[in-house]
Amino acid sequence: MQVDFYQLSRDPVHQVVPAIAARVLENGERLLIVEAREGGQDRLSQALWAAGPASFLAHDRAGCEHPALQPILLAEECTAANGASHIALADGMWRDEALAFKRVFYFFDATTTDHARACWKALKSRGDVEPRYWRQEGRRWVQGP
Fold first, then answer.
1. CATH of the domain spanning 2-143
2. What are the structural domain ranges in the chain?
3. Pairing label, strands 60-61, 72-75
4. What order do you get walking across the sheet with 130-137 strand by strand?
5. Cα distances (Å, whole numbers) of residue 66 to 49, 69, 70, 144
6. How confident is the model at residue 118 (pLDDT cuts 50, 70, 90)?
7. pLDDT in tens, 28-57
8. pTM over 0.85
9. Residue 97 CB partners (closer than 8 Å, separation 6+)
């Protein structure tokens, strides 16, 4: 399984996640976005409203009336009530439950860098996980060490 570490140095997570979400949907997959910080899901929801080809990426929050119908679900925990195979950890906190998904997008910034380094080391030592690192370089994402 693949874990992509995204170091946020220029843009906040709510500006980055919609592009990842759009690619996941284009590939016919579903996405669970985990965000437990105060106001974080509100910011992500607003960004998803203005992000898609028609200025909207369909989504809702965990606990909604029909979560299984949602291609993108916002939640505080790693429970994919929408059947997602991909998960985005948007609040900078690693959760081992994410390893049950096919692909993980883990976003961290300057305040969670130490936590991300510890997670990288732990995952790198596993034989069943391929961690990859991405950093912002101008307006692009560059894979690297």
1. 3.40.50.10110
2. 2-143
3. parallel
4. 60-61, 72-75, 31-34, 86-89, 103-108, 2-7, 130-137, 140-143
5. 18, 6, 7, 40
6. very high
7. 999 999 999 999 999 999 999 987 566 689
8. yes
9. 77, 78
